Amino acid sequence: MKVLLINGSNKPNGTTNRALTEVAETLNKNGIETEIFQLGAKAVNDCIACMQCRKLKNRCIFDDDIVNQLLEKAETCDGFVFGTPVYYAHPSARIQAVLDRAFYAGSSVFANKPGASVAVARRAGTVASFDVLNKYMTIARMPVVSSTYWNNVHGANAADAEQDLEGMQTMRNLGENMAWILKCIDLGKKNGINPPENERQHRTNFIK
Q1: Residue range 33-43: mean pLDDT, rounded
Q2: Distance between CA 206 and CA 208 in Å, rounded?
Q3: 207 pLDDT exceeds 90?
Q4: Rounded to an integer, what distance in angstroms lies between the CA atom of residue 113 and that of residue 57?
Q5: Where are the beta strands (DSSP E) in the chain?
């Protein structure tokens, strides 16, 4: 089993990476393979609702940035952790642009796989950011993994984050809970318990 941890910061060794590393190390101790996927600092297109992804298979029509690379990796992963720094009390525009397109073009690669979100900040805005990222999972049929507090870590840099003892504890507990959920799902599949077939025929237009 493998968990992909998406770092929505353009800083590869910042606070977000430190939080995700704590989760990853706990997953590794539980026998779960991990990879931290760095979104980097290169330009990322936002979704323009062109609908061209409907003609493709789990891919976005824009193929000149990192989104399709993420979707390709996601196909082979069993769980996800989405990490973001807080900018103006909100997730980074980078991770939102990536996830808007990834979930719209390829939501089926995430469906029925457990996910969690992590938000880091020097001070405020973590709860609002945490809430925004959770919405991607709840519209994509993903079991949302919780911890023993909201998945937040505080600090202006990685060294600061290590001093947030409760934040680091929350990350470790998140890793433990993710490992448990993954093992439960795996055991269920081995015993013939498969994801439900959801109804999709109704689509309400509130103007009519």
Answers
A1: 95
A2: 5
A3: no
A4: 18
A5: 2-7, 33-38, 79-87, 90-91, 115-121, 152-154
**Phi, psi for residue 141 in degrees, rounded to 5:** 60, 35
pLDDT value of residue 200:
87
Q: Which tens digit of pLDDT belongs to each residue from 162-182?
A: 999 999 999 999 999 999 999
Residue 156 and residue 174: Cα distance in Å, rounded?
22
* Phi/psi of residue 79, nearest 5 degrees: -160, 165
CB 129 within 8 A of CB 84: yes
Is the overall model pTM greater than 0.85, yes or no?
yes
Contact 8, 91 (CB under 8 A): yes
Phi, psi of 96 (to 5 degrees): -70, -40
Token pair for residue 72? 């390709």
Query: Using CA atoms, how far apart are residues 93 and 68, in angstroms rounded to an integer?
Result: 18
Question: CA-CA distance, 107 to 109, in Å (whole number)?
Answer: 5
Whole-number Cα distances in Å, 68 to 45, 106, 116:
12, 9, 21
d(CA 110, CA 136): 10
Residue pair 85/8 in contact (Cβ under 8 Å)? The answer is yes
